[in-house]
Every structure is written in C-alpha cells, then in structure tokens.
Amino acid sequence: MAKCDNGKWIVLEDTCVIKVIKELLDSSEVLQVEDVPDFVEKLNEEIKVIKNDVAKSPNTISTIVEILGNIALIDTLVVNQPVIEGVLQTVDVIIGEDSRESWTALNANESNNASSDLLGSMELLSDKIVGTFTFETGAILLNRSTFDNSFYANLNSSVVLDIPNTGFSNASITTITFSTLNIVMPVRSSSFNTSLFNTNNTDPVNALNAAVVLIKVNETIRNVTLSYTKLNTILTQDPQCVFWNFRLFDNRGGWDSDGCQFVSDINDTVTCRCDHLTSFSILMSTGIPKEFKELLDIITYVGVGISLASLVICLIIEGYVWKAITKNSTAFMRHVSLINTALSLLIADICFIIGASIADNPAENPGKNNYNVPVDPCSTATFFMHLFYLAVFFWMLVSGLLLLYRTVMVFSHMSKAVMLAIGFLLGYGCPLIIAVVTVAATAPGEGYITNKEACWLNWEQTRALLAFVIPALTIVCINIIIVIVVLFKMLRRGVGDAAQRDERHTLVVILRCVAILTPLFGLTWSLGVGTMLDSTNRGLHIVFALFNSLQGFFILVFGTLLDSKIRSILARKSPTTSTGSNTTRSTSGGISSTGLNWFHRLRGRRNVYRTSEAANSGSAGASESFSNI
Questions:
Q1: First-to-last C-alpha distance (Å) of the chain
Q2: Are 460 and 196 a contacting pair, CB within 8 Å?
Q3: For residue 291, what are the contacts with CB-CB under 8 A and spacing of at least 6?
Q4: Are 150 and 164 in contact (CB under 8 A)?
Q5: Are residues 24 and 137 in the same domain?
Q6: What integer pLDDT is reported at residue 513 of this predicted model?
Q7: Do 242 and 206 touch, CB atoms closer than 8 A?
Q8: How far is the C-alpha of 400 from the C-alpha of 395, rounded, in Å?
C-alpha cells in the first residue's frame, strides 16, 4: 500500500508476497488429501530456493503459515513421515534467526496472528502423525514413539520430559521441540497489557527463555514434569511455567500458567510440573528482583526526603543572605539561577511523591494483580515532573551561560532586567514548550505515560522519555564545553601577569566551577540512560537512585555551603551590611571577642569585594566576573 507524495511513491504498508508463495496459497485452498504429499514436497523445494527472501518478508511468512494451516485442516489427512518432514523443513526456514525482524513486525500487528496460527497448525498435524520415528532439522526435533506406563526423554539436550506411572500400555507420544520458537512467539502472558498491541514490544517485562516443546499423547495425562535448559543464563528472576493458551485475548493466544507450577531453578535448569499436555515453555523476568526494587524504593524515598529538606534549607539561606550577596549583576543572576534551580527541583520532587502515591508499586502492594496506573491523575503528575525536572537543567544552562558570558565577554555589560528576561525564558519557557509538545504528540495514542507501577514518561511504546533525556543530556554536554572554555580562558589570562593573589583566586574559581557545575549538570541521568540499556545491572540502579534522589543535597552543598562569602555572612551572629560605608554594626550593643576575631579575619576578604564595588561601570564586568561566582 502506497501513496503518491510530490511525485514520489511512499510505502505506507508492505503487503507484497513472493509470487510463487501466493500461487501455492491459492492451490492449498482447494487441496485434496491425496495431493498433500506432492504439494508439501513442492512447497519445501520452492522455499529452499528463495529462503533468504522469505525470511525478510513478513507477509510471505504469514502466507506460508496460512498454507500450513490449510494443510492441517484437511479432513481425513494422515500425516506420514515424509509429509511431516517436509512440513518441518518448511517451518525451519521461517523460524530461523534471520527471520527475527519479520516476526517482530508480525507480532506487533494486532490484525495478524501468524505466530499463534503456526503453533496451532503444528498441534493439529501432530495429532495426525502415524508410525514411530525420529526426525531432526536445524532448529526442530520430532520424536514419535510409544511407551508403557512411564516415559522419559532428553529432547535435543534442551528439555527433559518425564511422564511417570501413567498405567497406560502401548501409548503413543509425539514431541516436537522448537529451539528457536522464542524468536517467533510473542511473550504476552495472561497479565499482558493490551495497549501494547501494535507496538514492537509485546511485553517489556518478560522473555521466553527456553525451547518450546509440543507434547501430544493419545491418552489423558495428569502429571508431566519438564526440565528446561535456559537460553539466556543471565536471566534469573521469576521463572514462570507456561503453556500457549489459544483462547486468550479474543483467540489471539497468550502464555498461561493455569495447571502448571514452578518446581525449581538449579544450575540454569528450570523444572516445572503440569497437569495437562500442549505446547510448553518458560517465561522469565528481564527486570530487577522484587527484593532489590524494595531496596531501591527505600534509597529513593530516603534520598528524596533528604533532598526536600536540603532544598528548603537552601532557599531559607538564600533568602537570609540575599541583600548582602547580590550587590552586582553577576552575583545577582547567579543566585537567581540557584534559587530557581532549587525551587524547580523542590516542586518536581513534590510531584514525584504525589505520583508515587497515585501509582501502585508491587513492593508496597504485593497482593495486587493489576498495577496499571490511573491515566488522568498520573498524566498530570507526570506533566509537572517533566516540566520542573527540565527546568532544573535549563536553569543549570542559565548558570553555565552566565559563567561563559562573564568570562569571555569581560568588558560587556548587560542590565539585570535583560538577564532576568533571558534567564526566565530559558529556565521556564523552553521546558514548558517541550512538555506541552510531548503531551500533544503522545497522549492521543495513550503513549504519554508508563502503563503500570509508576507515573513517568512512556518508554516502551512512544519513547516519550526521550523528551526529557535528550534535552537534559544536551545541556550536560553544553555545560561541559562551557567549563572547558572557561578553564582555558582563565588559565590563559593568568599566565605571566597575574599576581599571587590573582592566581590563588583563579584556582578557587576553577575549583568552584568544577564542584558546582558537575553535579548540577545532571550526570546522574547518564546513569539513568544506562539503566534503560541494561535493566538488570544492579550497580547502575543503586548509583542512579542515590545520585538522582540526592540532587537537592548537592545543590545545598555545592551551590550554597561551598560559597565562602555565604559562609562568612552566616558565621556572623547578627549580620547587618551597609552598602554605603565600610562600617559593620552589631545590633546586640556589643561584640564578643570571638565576633571581633571573625570581623578582623573577614575584613581582609571584604576588601576584594570593595575593590570591585568601587570600580567604574565600564569595567564592572571585568571586576565582578569572578568575585561572587
């Protein structure tokens, strides 16, 4: 399906099927039982010739599955060894590793059910097999045999099957082991969120971690034990013993654990016990363990509590020293940026707590089966979190640009009003635009927020989280470049003509830039990207939780407490500064000896600032560039 746009054809949907396969589909719809052997042989031969093209064409694969379905539905069909071997050789072509992308596309299409149809056809054909034999092709092992009372077999060294004490005599059993069907079958289970249909991620939590084994016996079996060798030994969490239930999700099918129970997980072998026969495998969690999630929750909530307290203290201190600390435009704008950074993070953390209370966390509500979030309140909390977390980074950008401006454009002068306008436009205007555009682009398709357990931007469906990660990490990079430029300018300026005091002052400013800007630039979110790329890495999760939840504490320490002038003002018991004279008064009627010592020690430091205050306006930018940063 395509449309013409400006003289060019644009493919909207690839519905093409290889011609010979389409012709075979037409033939299969009128196929007679006596023609099945020759037809299967022809199908197998044709597919071997074009197998590379078949693997890359989702619609051709779907058509082949439809052909196999037509064969399986033929009444009175008896499947002998040549027929089933031909069928399995055909199936082997379409379930190989090179067909992974095609199956991903098919499983993401809600209108296509090729994977479930393929397994259904295999079950129908297995019921019609006659004779006893074993056949193996690339990724498939078929065993057809009989047994008395008990049956035990190691199937392709990937699944061990044990059926004990049935009491049956000369019972027929058919097993077909598919070692690569994890490529084909979607991992949706009975708790699957149906909103993930029509996405390329049918279940972001689980993975099919063993071969799929189809078992058919001509008697009723109530006790079967299966031991699976894991495909991915890294996965160790929450093994689920499952079978494919064709009736789930309006007959689209899904993995179900009804009648199966987990026995053990030892030495990368998962053992299950079931009370019926069909197609079995195991699902395993790709996330972090529940116990570890509880630890992360504790770290996060304690950290956020410390962060909130630190931000409140930071704002109180800034308000207390405001008049004394903002005597020139550079110091004024630096502390405006710091206050708005702290205020934005404070609001964002409050929204985080609200969002956490709205969503149901498995660690806090272990008895629930449904952890889907309420859309409207969770969307509101997510919007404000997105807005104000972005504002934190953009106010960091304002601080970085201020540092660059005062370092590079030494003799330039910009009024406080212009600085404020630029600061608020960047600090709040840009985050607001990004947050609104994100909602407008993703909310109509229900892809704005995560589906369950937490209120935050969606990742699996729409990648809405990139609307936060990309701006944040971009600002981190910009500020790193700014720091490099500032360091280069300052070192270059201090060579040869710098007095000892100036050199010491330069070193203090370099240290201050590194100490303040590095943690505030949100290096933490680089770890956040790492947790998305490697969701099972516990170290990344712990470090990210620690640094992310303690950002408010970092602002207090590096933005306020490490400022020597703020410390000197706070050290005075009753500070009262005068902008018009060099006199410092005490409101207490007298000054203790300790207070006098502080006064004399600080007096020498204050002369540095008085030098800048006495300078004319034309050189104000040069003298105040570093005095209060």
A1: 61
A2: yes
A3: none
A4: yes
A5: no
A6: 55
A7: no
A8: 9
Do 196 and 126 meet the contact criterion of CB atoms below 8 Å apart? no
Pick out the chain residues at pLDDT < 70. 1-14, 190-205, 285-291, 360-372, 410-411, 452-453, 493-515, 517-522, 528-537, 573-629
| pLDDT tens column, 364-410 | 444 444 446 788 888 999 999 999 999 999 998 888 888 778 777 75
Asked whether residue 19 is assigned to any structural domain, the reply reads yes
Q: Are 12 and 94 found together in one domain?
A: yes
Buried b / exposed e across 135-164, counting CB within 10 Å, b at 16+?
eeeebbbbbbeebeeebebebbebbbbebe
Residue 412 C-beta-side C-alpha neighbours within 13 Å: 10
CA dist., res. 102 & res. 119, Å (int): 17
* C-alpha–C-alpha distance, residues 234 and 379, integer Å: 35
Q: What is the pLDDT of residue 531?
A: 67
Pairing mode, strands 279-285 and 212-217: antiparallel
- Phi and psi at 468, nearest 5°, equal -105, -45
The pTM of this model reads 0.58
Q: Determine contact, residues 83/126, Cβ cutoff 8 Å.
A: no
Strand partners, 143: 134, 175
- Give the whole-angstrom CA distance, residue 348 versus residue 412: 35
**Residue partners of 30: CB distance under 8 A and separation at least 6:** none
Distance CA 337, CA 61 (A): 59
Question: Is residue 396 domain-shared with residue 296, that is, in the same domain?
Answer: yes
Lookup: tokens for 443 = 């909310």
Could you read off the pLDDT of 556-614 as tens digits, one per residue? Answer: 888 888 777 888 888 874 444 443 434 333 333 333 333 334 333 333 333 333 333 33
Beta bridge partners of 175: 143, 215
Beta bridge partners of 152: 162
Domain range for residue 145?
A: 132-191+203-287
Cα torsion 279, 282, 287, 289 to 10°: value is 140
Helix (H, G, I), strand (E, B) or coil at 550: coil
Specify whether the CB–CB gap between 76 and 26 falls below 8 A: no
206-208 and 224-229 strand pairing: unpaired
- Answer whether residue 451 is part of any domain: no
The one-letter amino acid at 55: A
Region for residue 412 given its phi and psi (left: phi exceeds 0; alpha: psi -120 to 50; beta: otherwise): beta
| CATH classification at residue 60 | 1.25.40
Token pair in block for residue 10: 């644009």
Query: Do residues 273 and 329 both lie within one domain?
Result: no
Residue 5 exposed, middle or buried by CB count within 10 Å (0-12, 13-18, 19+): exposed
Residue 532 is predicted with a pLDDT of 62
Distance of CA 464 to the CA centre of its chain: 11
Residue owning tokens 């049918």: 202
User: Is 266 a domain residue?
Assistant: yes
